[in-house]
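Q: Fold this one first, please.
A: Sequence and structure below.
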Amino acid sequence: MMKRSGISAEFQKKTFGNFKTRSNPQLSNAKSKAMKYVENFVQMEHERYNSIMFYGQVGAGKTHLGTAICGELMNGGVAVIYMAYRNAVTKIKQNIIDEEVYNRELNQYTSARVLYIDDLLKGRLTETDVNIMYEIVNYRYMNNMPIIISTEKSLNDLLIFDEAIGSRLIEMCRRNIIQLQGKELNYRLSQEVMEGWQG
């Protein structure tokens, strides 16, 4: 199940156990929400508000928490598909004129029991991005299929990208929208890392 998920061996090492909150209340809250999401997943899986979103500060551990959720769900027998947004959308675009391949690529994301979209809307965005994401998000919205999201974009950015997509994602995640804000959350710029770099 882990192999089929598309989550790399390096990312599989990201667990709740090794997520460092650094005594920061935002990080502690994000970890707590993520763990609670896993705990309540089975009861809410087929409800409208069955998804979770981490958004905001670069380097705050959004991908770590999303991956930790995936690992826990798969340990409980729940299949997850990982979608690295930029790479996945580029690959789908490359096959847009081959209907069979295009549908096959798209189908793995629409039909997954749980879909994890990492770095949603990363990079330069086009009308094709809107069309692809609408197909994926709308299908999952209409069928109450859970999505885990990490993104640097704000909720307003999602709505500006496309109101239909953004509003669906916000509605699906409404019980579990976690904002991480502030450069102090960027572990890549933490004192420990910077001291190592300067040394």
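Q: Good. Now the second chain.
A: Here it is, same layout.
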Amino acid sequence: MIKSLVLGGGCFWGMQELFCSQIGVVKTTAGYSGGEVLNPTYKNHKGHAEVIKIDYDTQKTSFVNLLDFFFRIHNPTTLNRQGNDIGDSYRSVIFYNDESEKLEALKFIDIVNKSGRWESLVVTKLEKFTSFTKAEDYHQDYLQKNPQGYTCHFVRGGGYLV
């Protein structure tokens, strides 16, 4: 079965680049979610986070495995900031689809906090998924088209799951 997950953890370019090659990920799409503007664009997306929508095959990966990778490729302890990007567009956020995903996300945040990997506690927000708007075409697979483009995302250490 194919399911979708929407995550924000800074600029969507770096997240999309790293997630697209994960086992079980069928497709990634850069976009906007969680804001006040009805038809967000890069120039007008007040309150929206830059996110990626991850379509994944539940026979090959899981919601929790994707969260494990998510918490390895960005700093979940910086409020509204990743690298040089500052503002609520760059917040760390999990858009959950139902209460089961919300509980799994809360459990995973607890695992990350207890891991001791970060000096501060996780500030990742949990927001109920309501809508996703695909970003402009030039944002899609940006780092594949522009290999020297900016990113602050990289894999930090091994997984949290043992």
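Q: Anything worth noting on the second one?
A: The chain has a mean pLDDT of 96.
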